[in-house]
Amino acid sequence: MSFERTDTSTLGRWWWTVDRLSLGAMILLIGIGMVLTFSASPAVAVRFGLGPYHFVKRQLIFGFPAMLVLAGASLLTPLQVRRLSAIGVMASVMMMVVVLVIGSDIGGAARWLTLAGLSIQPSEFFKPTFAVVIAWMFSEARLHPGFPGRQIATALLALGAVLLLAEPDVGQTLIISGIWGIEFFLAGLPLVMVGVLILLGAAGAVGAYFAFHHVQVRVAHFFDPRADGSYQVITALKAIHHGGLFGVGPGEGRLKLILPDAHTDFILAVAGEEFGVLVCVAVIALFALVVVRGLSRLNREDNLFIVLAASGLFSQFGLEAIVNMATTLRLMPAKGMTLPFISYGGSSTVGMALAMGMALALTRTRYPAEGAS
Amino acid sequence: MTLFPPRRGASGLHTGNDLQANVPAVRIDGVKAGALAVGHARLVAVAVAFGLTFGAIAVRMVDVGVFSHGLGLLYYHASANPTDVSRADIVDRNGVVLATSLPTVTLYARPKEIQNPVTATNKLLSVLPDLNRAKVLADLSSHRYFVYLHRDLTPHQQYLVNALGIPGLHFQKDERRVYPQGDLVAHLIGLTNIDNRGISGVEKEFDKRLRSSHKPLRLSIDIRMQQVVHDAVKNAVTRFSAVGGCGIIMNVDTGEVLAMVSFPDFDPNNPPAPNDPAMFNRATDGVYEMGSTFKLFDAAAAFKYGAATLESKFDASHPLDVNGAIIHDFDAQNRVLTVPEILIYSSNIGAARMALKMGADKQRAFLKSVGMLAPLHFQVPELGMPLYPRHDWRPINTATIAFGHGISVTPLHLITGVSALIDGGIYHNPTLLPVPPGATVPGHRVISTKISGEIRYLMRQVVLKGTGKFANVPGYDIGGKTGTAELVVNGRYKNHDVRSSFMAAFPMNDPRYAVLVLIDQPHGTKATYGLNEGAWVAAPAVARIISRIGPMVGFVPRKPQGTARGPRPASHGHRGIADTNRVSRPAKHNGAGTGRRGIALSSVPRDSSMEGRHVATD
Fold first, then answer.
1. Inter-chain touch B47–A291, beta carbons under 8 Å
2. H helices within chain A, ranges in order?
3. Closest by Cβ to B14, choosing from A142, A280, A302
4. How far apart are CA A354 and CA A67, in angstroms?
5. What is the ipTM of this complex?
6. Is A362 within 8 Å of A79 (Cβ atoms)?
7. Is the pLDDT of residue B328 over 60?
8. What's this model's pTM, rounded to 2 decimal places?
9. Which of A16, B13, B532, B560 sits between 20 and 30 A of B24, alpha carbons compared?
């Protein structure tokens, strides 16, 4: 694609203002996700009694629309992003309520909603729109003293947390809490309150431990790797170790065959076994590039809403990647969390494409003259 | 393009107002500028935190993938784990597995959780057809908390039961003892009960050891020799339609039992009822009158106490009357016999006269010293108690005990005692545990090395010239002694039912291995002219054993000497009558005029099987 610098069409301006390096990294990640689904999913699909390429086909079906969503969302103006999110957060909250009533149960939790033949996980669309809407609330509160933006943002967090914990989905609750915490922090939360929040977060983690049996089990497995149920994480570690520096080669993985969630939560282990540690480190570097570069670019952004909203979206991306990879590498107790863009999953891929598209839209280079004309 | 662009200059700061389309950006006031300054500073902190976290993950990735810190623990978890079973293996001296434990699962049910006992029973029977339908249905319908349904499922059976998806069925980890050698070492190894406790044989004797350590228990048994002895004994028992038999190989230097077979035997993987006769270990538990093999002890004792020398002569010209009981020779020579001739012709009269000359006290003391009067110390619980005149050792007892009647010991007693006689005169306890090379085995002297050499000479003579000819294998310098004892039934010796044995060792110039075969109630065949004595039944079995184990233990057969007469002497046929192998007599006896004695051999070697007919009981 090439545009003249002087091209002032929508696409022309987009091309010269969007963060092309980050966009390229994201598209590369989606592509890697498709390749790894080829490696990781046939064994799982056969185990489920589906055709070997069931998940591959579906990942392709979702992968290209995801790229379109990514690019399309990045064309939006900040105002359009805010409006889309305001509508989206309301729609996804409603769907999450519906999920609790009539949701499909996959893997022990009711998280999916079947609409016109598509299984949709509303929480994947709640997270990015939530990040943008609370950024709006925080910035309004900061810029217009007296506006109860912080209270509204916190109430929205509470609503989302209740709906997610009811599914139950502790992992997503953790993510939206993280987004809320980071945005609140950036919006100028006094440091004393930051300390209080960290304590509250710890209390919340302890609370989750006592409230949810499966959380207790997973924490127990984290501390005792030989307990029966930590099979999945241990198999993942063995797979990575089996692959070594350069991997055993595409399709040559053996431990992936017995890894129950090879195509979703533990796809990094399959990447490690077949393509090696170097490729995995490159993938980690791509995630780090997107997050750190995205946050860094915000340093020259003067609009508080944009700083907060984009930070929230990049944080969502980074937190999900970190939770997924830390789980696979046994750095934290197992948490069902997809690896953004890479793991199989239509809702998570499209939802994440929306999030990153909006983040790219917000981080497009804007010149004062543009608005002033 | 830089990856992480520096902050743009402070000029042109503007607030969120420009979100409103076409609203001109305004320079921000103090409050807004302060908010942005704080936000930007904290943004750096957040970005750094994310960067460090991704860095830590990358480091961990390399650590897991390239190094293996802590992964050993994980592999331990998944590998086939010997500690999954609670009982150690039993192996032979070369590490061949004789007994091992396999992890299995046991199927049980909690009847209260079974929704439909009839459906569950039908489904279960479809994959486990050996279950008893009525019993399973009753169990599943009961109000008990817990019922066992099936022990020791195979992995496939477990999979099938699991696939039925019946709630209320559960699996419990279990283990099963497996004996890969089948009936080969059945008596010696013994059995375990359903709770994996040893109930017989080595399994019982070493029960604590097997349950406390996962290290395999190594026995002195050599499974190759065991196989050879098993073949030979089974073959003899079958050919002579015998009731049973046993065979033992012992290392004479150490007392290690290298092979021990009792027949009939059983498959320990599918054992018969506990009182089944096949479960009886004849080799350690059966006490038998051994017959003429005891003449070796008689001669050794007579030499030791000065009652006789190799050159002594005893009158066997007519039956011996001991206080009214008449002792006959079966193969009567009706003349005065030298001590070697007494052994060669197995003369009861000669043996009795030797014993009577020595006296009862010395005979008894000697038999005690070679272990014949007490149960053995040996590593199985099934040990027979010798039978002999406890209080009243009269002259007639002395006379008959000289040729192995009126005293009953186990086959293991006999081979252990004879091993002491030929191993330079040192008695060692028999043992089932391997003796490390070079280790000194405790023992006590029973005769001098000189007398030990004389006994070896006598045994060699028996094979060269006497009743043991069928045991000869050219080049192995085998020595031995036949034994044929009549059975006592209801207090009377029973005509024609005998126990035939052959007690052998090789090579006789420095014996390493003692071999004993005993066949219980053999019946003569056409090939043996209807004869069932040790010479015809047990001696050929011993010959087969020695010719097969010799190469196993690296024994190089000695080349026949004195072949000036042409063809190999052994080529004179199966009866070995003209075997001219030189006597492997101890050097100290060379030139004493006893090397070759011109003893004429009867055409058919006969053992003194009828001996003692008239002395049976009184």
1. yes
2. 10-17, 20-47, 54-74, 78-102, 122-143, 149-166, 170-186, 191-211, 213-223, 231-243, 267-297, 304-328, 346-362, 368-372
3. A302
4. 9
5. 0.90
6. no
7. yes
8. 0.54
9. A16
